[in-house]
Amino acid sequence: MLHLQSHVNRTVKVPRSYFWKRLIAFDKIQTLLPKTIKEVKIPENFSNSPGDVRYVYLEKVYHGEVIERLDGFIEEKFMTYSVVDKSCLPVENYVSTVNIKKTNQNYTEVDWYGHFRAHEKNREETVTMFQFNYNLICDNMEKQYLELNSN
Questions:
Q1: Beta strand segments in the chain, E
Q2: What average pLDDT is seen over the chain?
Q3: Which of 2, 14, 33, 80 is the 20 to 30 Å CA partner of 135?
Q4: What is the pTM of this model?
Q5: CATH number of the domain encompassing residue 47
Q6: Is residue 23 a contact partner of residue 73, using CB atoms and an 8 Å limit?
């Protein structure tokens, strides 16, 4: 097993408060990856607080369940989450951190890291997959923000 990292650094054309609101809505991840996620289930006592888990069901490429835990956050600056137990993804010990900074009123700098263990044969695939998803979430936030504010 190899210790690997995926990383994306980019500026997103949305205000930091909007990016944060969407990111911390841990139970609403499907709205940011609608073509990838089939369903998200949350426990009755879900409160969007550290320790809360979401059950994400994928239907493309990797079919099955991924259980993710919100590990912690600093309001409008930083969030970390991890995959707990076994999942349908070809990785183990996945932990992700998302750092956000306001660059100006309408732009947010995003530094998104994922750290995990993967088998040698899955090395390129997993690094690329996570980078693709981080970028897709950012793209979808920009698109949805534009749609929301074009009316």
A1: 2-12, 37-41, 53-58, 64-74, 78-84, 91-104, 107-118
A2: 94
A3: 2
A4: 0.94
A5: 3.30.530.20
A6: no
